[in-house]
UniProtKB/TrEMBL annotation:
CRAL/TRIO N-terminal domain ranges (all copies): 56-81
InterPro entries: CRAL/TRIO_N_dom (IPR011074), CRAL/TRIO_N_dom_sf (IPR036273)
Organism: Larinioides sclopetarius
The protein, known as: CRAL/TRIO N-terminal domain-containing protein
Gene Ontology cellular component annotations, sorted alphabetically: membrane
Domain of life: Eukaryota
Biological classification of the source: Eukaryota, Metazoa, Ecdysozoa, Arthropoda, Chelicerata
Gene3D superfamilies: N-terminal domain of phosphatidylinositol transfer protein sec14p
Length: 137
């Protein structure tokens, strides 16, 4: 999807817009070379350290972008993410179904269908909607 008539980005994007690509170049140092080299180094570290994680380029680039293409810092964040998702999988499975879903069903939190002017997804919470007890569906 692309920018809609009102100039607002939809929640799901297939690729960055030209303005977001420019912003990534300026603020993150993201270039084709940085992406290519960063992904290559990151995948090598994942293989070397045997980190159980998805190696899809679109997934890994999130860790590179969040650390401005510093591969070592991105890898540390990736390891922490992997630990949280794999070692504590039973806890996350429990908390998602038992805690998060009722909040979504009762409109206590949600995701807006459009992004902000900077291209960021918007998650909202309505604490006034919380009554102290949320029934399960």
């Amino acid at each position: 999807m692309s920018v809609q008539e009102d100039g607002v980005l939809p929640l799901v994007l297939e690729d960055l817009t030209e303005s977001l690509k420019q912003k990534a170049r300026v603020e993150l140092g993201e270039t084709e070379e940085a992406v290519r080299n960063g992904l290559k180094e990151l995948k090598a570290l994942i293989k070397e350290k045997q980190v159980p994680i998805c190696t899809d380029d679109d997934f890994l680039i999130m860790f590179l972008r969040s650390k401005k293409f510093n591969v070592k810092k991105g890898f540390e964040q990736l390891k922490n993410y992997s630990y949280q998702r794999h070692i504590l999988m039973n806890y996350y499975g429990f908390i998602f179904t038992d805690k998060v879903m009722p909040a979504l069903h009762h409109n206590i939190c949600g995701i807006l269908p459009k992004r902000d002017q900077e291209g960021r997804a918007i998650i909202y919470f309505l604490p006034t909607s919380v009554t102290g007890k949320v029934s399960k569906h």
